[in-house]
Design brief:
Layout: H1 9-14, E1 22-28, E2 31-36, H2 37-50, E3 59-63, H3 68-79, E4 83-86, H4 96-110, E5 114-117, H5 119-125, E6 133-134, E7 153-157, E8 167-171, H6 172-186, E9 193-196, H7 203-215, E10 219-223, H8 225-230, H9 234-242, E11 246-249, H10 251-259, E12 273-276, H11 283-293, E13 303-308, E14 315-321, E15 329-331, H12 334-337, E16 351-356, E17 362-366, E18 374-380, E19 396-397, E20 400-410, E21 413-419, E22 424-426, E23 429-431, H13 433-441, E24 446-458, E25 463-472, H14 480-495, E26 501-506, H15 520-529, E27 535-539, E28 562-566, H16 580-590, E29 596-600, H17 603-616, H18 621-642, E30 647-651, H19 674-677, H20 684-697, E31 705-706, H21 709-712, E32 713-715, E33 720-721, H22 736-747, H23 770-782, H24 792-795, H25 798-811, H26 829-839
Parallel strand pairs: 1-10, 3-4, 3-5, 5-6, 9-10, 11-12, 12-13, 25-26, 27-28, 27-29, 29-30, 30-31
Antiparallel strand pairs: 1-2, 7-8, 13-14, 15-16, 16-21, 17-18, 18-20, 19-20, 20-21, 22-23, 24-25, 32-33
Helix pairs in contact: 2-3, 10-11, 17-18, 18-20, 23-25
């Protein structure tokens, strides 16, 4: 038995050497590994020998997936008298870019001597940072003698939700002092068994759910956090398998489990304490969790609330509760709460959970007394007095640490209202962002938990603006502005709160910390940096997909900062020919500084130029597409030299629609002209194949690529377009919000609200004036005089015909079908007039 009054690490660690009992088990996907104490001792010894070249007391960063290598490496650093600190590894939650930024920040301030990392992480970061990197081998034996330190140290870094990560350093004596007091609060016994899916770079995961059970010799089972997120009920399965009794989770985890479904029946009768910690505790979330899973033999008194903070190592209070009773939370008046007053109101829906009383040897006090809420201060034997490598002399105020939380004490129990740094004081009232965030998270089409409410002082109105940012579910395909208006209205009608600025984002646009918390200040900076730029879309008639109305040949209903420039039947074959080349160059030269030029080219390549190259020049498909991409790369390089201040991007051309069969007149054509481009040179099956290869090849252009195929296709392999997005034989409809969503995501710009279609009166044509109007229009556009017999198709080329049709629909009350292609209907001027009358709107 370990003497629990002994604070000597070397004594604790040597006790593992010949002990055949299980130290811990952990789940690696579907495989469960069990590690004996003696095996763990020798694994640690092996890695310690690999670290023997490092000077004592040097910082070592650990970046691993949830694995035995991570567990061993942490203790190996302690055994080597090094200072280990676990950081989140690059993953779907932590981008490589964010990882490098954090490493850079930590390196500048703390000068780590080594990074111990998995092979996966090492491959990502090798040759990109100046710090030595090593992957430990826990099975590589060594005869090196290790002198275990009595009081080693380790460090933790904050998630950086408010800026540069803070460093906190502890020693083994502080840790075990805290564990002594914490253990007395938990009512543990020899049958107590801990289970956790929490990452070890979080203090709740590292301290409460890893170091505490290991050092205090309680059974421990660990689950990979990423595996749990994808398979949340694996926690219940393993609770039943291991008869687990204690676990800690943040508030979101209870929500995550409650909203997921499982047909499996579990036995949760062994659980003594589901503890909620690390996030504001929502009583309704815990009640919902119990109501959902009580059928699995979950007891009402098997819940607890822990108020914890890394600055105090972990817990400051702990409160075991009975979920069926109402003595563990207060119902308070919402209006008074917004005026910094606590008034108990049994009719209110606003609930605040009790965190209980302080641990032994810990003092908790509030700056102001009840009924006001104020900053919470703590004092203990093991709290820190400063952050590691900080320039400040001390972070204490009269020997107390300011938690930066706001709360109050009622009947000797602590109640936490929120963070002082989060508090928004707007128009004379106090608002905690969680109130708004929780409400908005419950609305349709919003990603729950991916909502950020922030206050930002505005000198013009001498108060804080309330800014609301949220992510939209991928299934939502309407205009973001519509959803923004709905949310603004609902927040005001239900909460009585005016949202000053609101912005919807695509999924995974907003930043979260490595511990999963919303990063308020970084997201505020993201919002401010997201420039409103003019976006100019150049291309064939598909550019009109940016119209809300789905109308061709106008831009009356696109976003206010999106401008459409039609370059008819453009392809790689003719982009460098006149008049197109000059027209594009002139347009690019005219753009305002820092605008975005977005090219929607490609359809003509797929339906005409690729099959032409394959047939005429016997090129393979890959060579034909490579040839096209070479042309476009040179084209982009030329424009970039012309206007280096602009940003360029490309839109994947629409998937081939219903299409037409090859036109016999053009199948064996020897050269391409505008007339040919209006037809198809190959079958629909071939076009789909060309389009797939073409789409992949666009990445070679080295500009951002806007791709809405995943949103609009029923079947990616067969390129089957969902019915709601099919406009005509080649055009899409209802894709404006999808295009805008991808532009926001890829280019990090704001899209303004939709233009209101101008209510300008168009000319209503009558039989008596149609000839005069058409003659005047052709003269104005092309400087040609026409007679009734004039052959329009001989007089005007294909580009001019497109311009003529566009002008007719813009100036006159004429609605020509989007899929119109029968040029024979306008062969002569007389036929043109009849054609216009056919589609005109008649006088009422």
């Amino acid at each position: 038995m370990i003497d629990k009054n002994d604070f000597d690490f070397s004594f604790f660690f040597k006790e593992l050497k010949n002990n055949e009992q299980e130290l811990l088990s952990f789940r690696d996907l579907s495989t469960i590994h069990k590690i004996k104490k003696s095996d763990f001792f020798y694994f640690v010894l092996n890695v310690s020998a690999q670290l023997s070249h490092l000077p004592k007391k040097k910082l070592v960063l650990l970046s691993f997936e949830h694995s035995l290598d991570l567990f061993v490496s942490f203790f190996a650093c302690l055994a080597s008298d090094l200072i280990p600190a676990i950081i989140a590894h690059p993953s779907s939650k932590v981008s490589s870019q964010d990882f490098f930024h954090k490493i850079e920040a930590l390196s500048n301030q703390h000068k780590p001597s080594l990074i111990l990392a998995s092979k996966t992480t090492s491959n990502i970061i090798s040759n990109k940072i100046d710090i030595p990197i090593s992957t430990p081998d826990i099975y590589l034996t060594s005869k090196t003698n290790i002198n275990f330190p009595k009081n080693p140290e380790f460090a933790q870094f904050s998630s950086g939700s408010t800026g540069l990560p803070k460093a906190i350093k502890y020693n083994f004596k502080q840790l075990t002092l805290h564990f002594k007091d914490f253990e007395q609060t938990l009512n543990l016994n020899s049958k107590s068994k801990f289970i956790s899916w929490l990452p070890l770079y979080h203090d709740m995961g590292l301290i409460a759910c890893f170091l505490f059970p290991i050092i205090k010799s309680y059974s421990l089972h660990l689950i990979d956090p990423f595996y749990w997120i994808q398979n949340p009920f694996i926690l219940f399965e393993d609770i039943e398998n291991f008869n687990s009794t204690h676990t800690w989770m943040p508030n979101f985890a209870y929500k995550h489990l409650s909203k997921n479904k499982s047909n499996t029946k579990y036995n949760l009768s062994s659980i003594k304490s589901f503890s909620s910690c690390a996030e504001p505790v929502d009583p309704d979330t815990l009640i919902e969790f119990y109501n959902r899973f009580s059928k699995y033999h979950l007891q009402a008194n098997s819940f607890a609330i822990t108020y914890a903070m890394a600055e105090n190592i972990f817990a400051m209070t702990h409160h075991q509760i009975d979920i069926k009773k109402d003595d563990w939370y207060l119902k308070i008046n919402q209006k008074d709460f917004r005026n910094n007053k606590i008034r108990i109101d049994s009719n209110s829906s606003k609930k605040i959970a009790s965190c209980g009383i302080a641990l032994q040897n810990t003092k908790v006090q509030c700056k102001s007394s009840y009924p006001n809420y104020s900053e919470v201060f703590i004092q203990s034997n093991y709290m820190i007095d400063n952050y590691w490598n900080s320039n400040k002399q001390s972070i204490l105020t009269e020997h107390f640490f300011n938690t930066q939380d706001l709360g109050f004490i009622y009947n000797n129990q602590l109640y936490i209202c929120g963070r002082s740094s989060d508090l928004i004081i707007s128009r004379g009232i106090n608002l905690f962002p969680q109130e708004i965030e929780d409400f908005v998270s419950k609305q349709n089409n919003i990603y729950s938990g991916r909502v950020v409410c922030i206050g930002d002082f505005d000198n013009k109105i001498s108060t804080e603006k309330i800014i609301l940012l949220f992510e939209v579910q991928n299934s939502y395909d309407n205009d973001y502005q519509k959803l923004e208006n709905q949310i603004t209205s609902k927040v005001y009608s239900k909460l009585g709160i005016i949202i000053d600025e609101i912005k919807a984002f695509p999924y995974k646009s907003l930043m979260k910390t490595s511990s999963g918390k919303v990063a308020r200040l970084p997201n505020l900076e993201l919002y401010k940096k997201q420039k409103i730029k003019n976006i100019h879309v150049l291309g064939c008639s598909h550019i009109y997909s940016f119209n809300q109305s789905n109308e061709l040949y106008n831009q009356d209903t696109c976003a206010k900062n999106i401008f459409l420039k039609q370059i008819p039947v453009v392809s790689a074959e003719n982009i460098n020919k006149q008049p197109r080349k000059q027209e594009i160059e002139n347009y690019i030269q005219s753009l305002h500084k820092s605008s975005i030029a977005l090219f929607y080219f490609g359809e003509q390549d797929i339906r005409t130029y690729i099959p032409f190259l394959i047939r005429q020049y016997q090129l393979s498909l890959s060579n034909a597409i490579e040839h096209i991409m070479t042309i476009y790369s040179a084209f982009l390089n030329h424009l970039n030299k012309l206007r280096p201040d602009l940003q360029f991007a490309w839109i994947v051309p629409p998937p081939p629609g219903v299409g037409l069969e090859p036109h016999p007149k053009f199948v064996n054509t020897q050269q391409l002209d505008n007339e040919c481009y209006y037809h198809f040179l190959d079958t629909q099956l071939h076009r789909k194949n060309y389009a797939q290869y073409y789409k992949k090849a666009l990445t070679s252009l080295k500009v951002p690529v806007i791709d809405i195929w995943p949103d609009i296709l029923d079947n990616q392999k067969n390129i089957s377009i969902k019915t709601k997005y099919i406009g005509d034989y080649s055009h899409l409809k209802n894709v404006k919000p999808l295009l805008e969503k991808e532009i926001i995501k890829q280019l990090q710009v704001q899209i303004l609200s939709t233009k209101i279609k101008p209510k300008q009166s168009k000319v209503i044509l009558v039989i008596e004036n149609v000839e005069a109007e058409m003659k005047a229009l052709i003269l104005d556009l092309f400087n040609h005089q026409v007679l009734l017999e004039t052959n329009i198709l001989s007089l005007l080329n294909s580009l001019h015909i497109v311009e003529l049709i566009q002008s007719i629909t813009t100036k006159y009350e004429v609605s020509i079908p989007n899929n119109w292609m029968e040029k024979s209907e306008i062969e002569s001027f007389k036929k043109l007039c009849s054609f216009v009358l056919k589609y005109r709107k008649k006088e009422q």
